[in-house]
Amino acid sequence: MPGVIIIEGMAQSCIILYAAIKPEIAAKHPIYYLGNADIKFLKPVFPGSQLMLEATHRKIMEKVGIASVTARVNNEIVAKGEIIFGIKL
């Protein structure tokens, strides 16, 4: 599975995290921007694998968020890192 697809999934999990923490802002349908993705790939992911994504907030403000992200296959970490994203209201 291409790394860019894994990063996209991680970024989308950050949006879900943001919406859970700031539902009043997420309800206004803001635009989300990827600011920086510092991801380390530890193992390959093959088509057909079940990829589990986890995002944990480090800092969530009104217009920016920083999250630690992890991708697992069979409970083994295959990629991890940090994503910084912006929100345009």
Task: Please describe what this structure looks like.
There is one protein chain. The protein is α+β, with helices and mostly antiparallel strands and 89 residues long. It has one domain (3-88): Thiol Ester Dehydrase, Chain A. It has 2 helices and 4 strands; from the N terminus they run ααββββ. A 4-stranded antiparallel beta sheet has the order 1-4-3-2, with helices on one face. β2 (51-60) and β3 (64-73) form a beta hairpin. It starts with a helix and ends with a strand.
Question: Would you identify the regions where 5 or more consecutive residues have pLDDT less than 50?
Answer: none
CATH architecture: Roll
What is the spatial order of strands in the main beta sheet?
Answer: 1-4-3-2
* Helix/strand order: HHEEEE
Radius of gyration: 13 Å
Biggest beta sheet summary? 4 strands, antiparallel
What would CATH call the homologous superfamily? Answer: Hotdog Thioesterase
When the domains are counted, the total is 1
Please give the alpha-carbon distance between the first and last residues: 33 Å
- Shape annotation: elongated
At the first level of CATH, the class is: Alpha Beta
Summed up, what is this model?
The protein has 2 helices and 4 strands. With 89 residues, the chain is of the alpha+beta class.
From the structure above, extract its key features:
single chain, 89 residues, alpha+beta, Thiol Ester Dehydrase, Chain A, four-stranded antiparallel β-sheet, 26% helix, elongated
